[in-house]
């Protein structure tokens, strides 16, 4: 950065600064009043205080140079601040252009990576701004301190000049008294000079007035010479200051050139580093893309396998459902058969009880027959046992047995037999025993059929329970497989979205 535009505004800024601080490098000279109105007194004061004012002017010039330098520094820092703010705006636009933040995503927002880079750059720029603001505040503090020092120095110089002017006026009054002026008039040298010039009656001494006029002319000459020397010295100082400023500007320009070259080198290095980082990022994105593609392929294979397994499970489920329906139908038939078997069993039980009752009655008849065969009864001689048999248990004589006629051929279960048997009744007794044995075997067969029907019923019930349990297990397996399939589909969709995003990022980076 050059200071040429700053130097063009130097005079206006320095004058404004002098107005603010109340400091002026050259005191404005008052117009010379007409003779006889105090003009010669001021000239004498200037001539007498010429030496002190020379020193004060040198100090004032030095202070003015320092003030101008501080003004330049202040303006330079202000310009630097503005340039840095412009650089921040430019860097923001460059960030938008380089990192693709000017092109928003589908949702209208930046990506996370671009946001992170943008935030880092903004934080760095804010740090630079804060540093520049701190430097500006420091420079403003230094300017305020220099203003205070300058004001103190000028106040001191003013007091010193006033004391010197008073001393010179006292010396002039002494010289006047020594030369024969009237001591009664307690007037200053300028007032005496004015009174000597205005006197018309010739009351004062003409020699003293001539000497005062000669002193006045000498003072004016010396004052003019001093002013010319001061002007020459000021011009030389200005030339020296301009040369110094030019040298400083050249040095600053050289330093700025060096800084610009260093910045260019740093920018080139940063660009190289950015390119290397981009290449590494591209390689990493490609590797991630390959790994994601492999994961997607493996998940697709798993999904296909799971779909095949699900199809098989569905077929198995349909087959088992069909089998379960068949088993249920078979169970229904078995239940109907069992109900019929139960009915048959009840009928068998009834017939069995009837047969048992019939066998019991037959046994009673057999016992009666056996007792009648061992002791045949007679009408005249009746044994006590037969008499007892004729009498019931309650002491009432029972009726004599009446021999019925021959049994009906259609009656399978005769209820009563005659207790009195002839010799040919032994065959009927054997037939009765055979009938009893036949009934017992039939009863045993019916019991065996009933037990077999019960076992078949239990087996069919157990098979039905197993089929139902297997159907429940298959339903649970199908639900688990369907949930796994949904999870796999979701994961495949997520991986496909990631693949598309990574492909888009890689394409953007390749375009950059």
From TrEMBL:
Compositionally biased intervals (Basic and acidic residues): 222-291, 298-326
Annotated stretches, region: Disordered: 1-62, 173-428
Ranges in coiled-coil conformation: 429-498
Lineage: superkingdom: Eukaryota
Bias type Polar residues, positions: 13-24, 181-199, 333-351, 376-386
Keyword Coiled coil: yes
Cellular component per GO, a single term: cytoskeleton
Composition-biased stretches (Low complexity): 211-221, 361-375
Keywords: Coiled coil
Keyword Coiled coil attached: yes
Protein's name in the database: Uncharacterized protein
Organism ancestry: Eukaryota, Metazoa, Porifera, Demospongiae, Heteroscleromorpha
